[in-house]
């Protein structure tokens, strides 16, 4: 019995060790950060097809880059659902199953009068597991809901290009390359686009037509992102 509990305890500690860094989402993605490269347009915008004199000599033809634009609508209900979905999937059902098994076993052995060192180990693991999962949820919830409530209009404009995309709302604008997207989690009502284990953007599916969905998946996959 204790061998089985030891395996469950190891599985819980394995999950916890996988998230050694705190789950803190910055209030705004910083394009100048080391993880997310900065993209600076080296020249002003010109009308498509206009020929200008380049400094190095010769003519330069500026071509229009097709961009698909989508207006995303958010609600507090959707934000809450996105946080819950992220929280449960990030930890995994095995984490919760193992935690419940260790907790039930701890209660059983204490009730049976066991006061060995193993009781202390199980109690420590239960406290760590509950504390970590609760802190992870609270941090993401407070940051996400806080940013949502700062929006005077719960909308954002998503511009999709071949090499980069831009998200703009009344609280800020971020333009990133598709190469910064490392993973996409698909849910029935929304997608989560990840830039790291703890940084992600929520995309409402109700606002995306089939063309926009295919474009996001194609561009992300072509730059090495995992889709699940």
Could you please describe the fold and organization of this structure?
With 228 residues, the protein is α+β, with helices and mostly antiparallel strands. The protein has one domain. It is built from five helices and ten strands. The chain has helices spanning 2-17, 76-91, 93-111, 117-150, 210-222; strands at 51-53, 59-61, 68-73, 155-160, 164-169, 172-177, 183-186, 190-194, 200-204, 226-227. The strands form three sheets. A four-stranded antiparallel sheet has the order 3-4-5-6, covered by helices on one side. Strands 9-8-7-10 form a four-stranded mixed sheet, with helices on both faces. Helix 1 packs across helix 3 (93-111) and helix 3 packs across helix 4.
* Largest sheet, strands/sense/barrel: 4 strands, antiparallel
**What is the count of helical runs?**
5
Rg from Cα:
23 Å
Q: Low-confidence runs (pLDDT<50, min 5 residues)? A: 20-52
Query: What helical percentage do the residues reach?
Result: 40-55%
* Helix-strand pattern: HEEEHHHEEEEEEHE
Cα distance, first to last residue? 36 Å
β-strand number: 10
Structural class comes to alpha+beta
Largest sheet, order of strands side by side? 3-4-5-6
In the residues, how many domains can be counted? Answer: 1
List the SSEs and their pairings:
Elements: H1 2-17, E1 51-53, E2 59-61, E3 68-73, H2 76-91, H3 93-111, H4 117-150, E4 155-160, E5 164-169, E6 172-177, E7 183-186, E8 190-194, E9 200-204, H5 210-222, E10 226-227
Parallel strand pairs: 7-10
Antiparallel strand pairs: 1-2, 3-4, 4-5, 5-6, 7-8, 8-9
Helix pairs in contact: 1-3, 1-4, 2-4, 3-4
